[in-house]
Amino acid sequence: MKKIVLFGAGQFGAMISRLIGTGYAISCFADNYEGKWGTTLAGIPVVSPKESMLFDPDCFCICVMDEERAGQMETQIRKLGFNGPILRPDALRTFDARVATMRLLAEQIQEEKIPGDVAELGVFRGDFAVLINAAFPDRTIHLFDTFEGFPPKDVEIEQEQGFSGAKAGDFAETAKDIVAKRLPCPEQAVFHKGYFPATFRSCMEKTFAFVSVDADLYAPTAAALPLFWDRLSTGGAMLIHDVNSTQYTGAGKAVREFCTEKGLLPMPVCDLHGSVVLRKP
Ligand SMILES: C[S@@+](CC[C@H](N)C(=O)[O-])C[C@H]1O[C@@H](n2cnc3c(N)ncnc32)[C@H](O)[C@@H]1O
């Protein structure tokens, strides 16, 4: 078994530690931020890059997605005298566990003829909505977003509670028309532009088979969970982004509160952003 050091003790590092397959034994995380040294991440010790060399690793894995930073970290490892292989998880840009999960759920929902529309809360420029629309070409897709970025009142809660560093207007560089033009089946789309949950009013009588919740913040996630769950068909699924995120912690708090109240256990997805699935029994 090869001894591997994961360089970068952040959100990506944590998920990469879970994706590492048989054949590797993780010795530790290395990180340049002194405040993390001596702590653990996903049960693995975090040490300085210099100290990680004491584990006599067979290889390193760079756990950041930013190309420039990854290059700098690689140079740093070489300067520490490591001559072995340095892995870059580039495949994670190509293969995405969240997308695969959505497609598998879609295949099953279609095959089992589970009734209902599909929806996404938090659309931004439509990267994920395009894929949902393609996976459910015969179903109405409801798209909820301000299309003006994070609402100030939700961001206030984030700041008061210390959930994230979100700013009002983050993700504002979009528009309904930009998304509409990208959809493969635009005739199926119903746009609900504005503040969620106010925009849900017209959906009170709807039934859903699949819902993606990707609003990042506590308030819209907490509002969305009961509204969609109560209208989800038996066998329907909700895929919620950022639940195990270290960047946006409010979404996870909202999901944990909701699941405790309903007696549910979310199924984790090993994507880079800590998504979970809630399935309606
Ligand atoms: C991370 S982005 C969504 C990314 C998108 N799902 C994708 O795959 O590219 C989060 C979105 O949530 C929206 N959002 C957050 N809170 C909202 C609220 N209360 N009402 C409506 N939209 C909200 C933001 O405007 C932003 O576009």
Describe the fold and architecture.
- It is a single chain.
- The protein is built from 10 helices and 13 strands.
- The chain is of the alpha/beta class and 281 residues long.
- It has 2 domains: 2-93, NAD(P)-binding Rossmann-like Domain (Rossmann fold, 3-Layer(aba) Sandwich), CATH 3.40.50.720; 97-279, 3-Layer(aba) Sandwich (Rossmann fold).
- It has a 7-stranded mixed β-sheet, sandwiched between helices.
- Strand 3 (40-41) and strand 4 form a beta hairpin.
- The longest helix is centred in the middle third of the chain and has 15 residues, at 97-111.
- The protein starts with a strand and ends with a strand.
- The protein binds S-adenosylmethionine (SAM).
Please specify the SSE layout and strand pairing:
Layout: E1 2-7, H1 11-19, E2 24-30, E3 40-41, E4 44-47, H2 49-52, E5 59-62, H3 67-79, E6 86-87, H4 91-94, H5 97-111, E7 117-121, H6 127-135, E8 141-145, H7 152-161, H8 176-182, E9 189-193, E10 208-213, H9 218-229, E11 232-240, H10 250-262, E12 267-268, E13 276-279
Parallel strand pairs: 1-2, 1-5, 2-4, 5-6, 7-8, 7-10, 8-9, 10-11
Antiparallel strand pairs: 3-4, 11-13, 12-13
Helix pairs in contact: 5-6, 9-10
Bound molecules: S-adenosylmethionine (SAM).
The site of S-adenosylmethionine (SAM) has 21 residues, from helix 6 and strand 8.
